[in-house]
Amino acid sequence: MLTDPIADMLTRIRNAHLALHKEVSVPSSKMKQSIAAILKQEGYVDDFAVDGRAITISLKYHQGKPAIAGLKRISKPGRRVYVGSSQIPRVQNGLGICILSTSTGLLDGVSAHEKKVGGELLCEIW
Asked: Pairing state of beta strands 61-62 and 54-59?
């Protein structure tokens, strides 16, 4: 049994990029679907499809290099990290995004700052 399914998803994406796979499959949940939707919206993945109990994510490459240079899990089951709307970090000086779990659902850092909501800082992607 996994204790941190979001970290598992991020690790699968990282490993698939390192192996230059075209797609990766992760077990499905509503939170993972929201994370995949944010990744697609921000242009880090080509597409994602939910089929039953799995999410298939089509990875994106630019001239043979992965679109995602790095992934980092911030809030973990042993240490939750919460930020207010004014404390949302800028990832890689604005070149990356952070994903927050807010009271209005999962949002990227820019959207959360515009809506003036804070929450749990899940991960950073650049």
From this structure: unpaired
Same domain, 46 and 81: no
Say what the pLDDT of residue 1 is: 63
Helix (H/G/I), strand (E/B), else coil: 78: coil
62 and 82 belong to one structural domain: no
Neighbours of 24 (CB within 10 A): 20
Q: How many domains in the chain? A: 2
What is the pTM for the complete model shown? 0.93
Grouped pLDDT means (10 residues each) for the chain, 126 residues? 90 96 97 97 97 96 94 96 96 95 96 96 97
The parent domain of residue 79 ranges over 71-125
Beta strands per DSSP E along 7-91 = 23-27, 45-51, 54-59, 61-62, 65-66, 71-73, 82-83
Q: 44, 66, 88 — which closes off a domain?
A: 66
| Residues 62 and 14 both lie in one domain | yes
- Residue 5 and residue 65: Cα distance in Å, rounded? 26
Alpha helices (H) in 19-106, listed in sequence order? 30-42
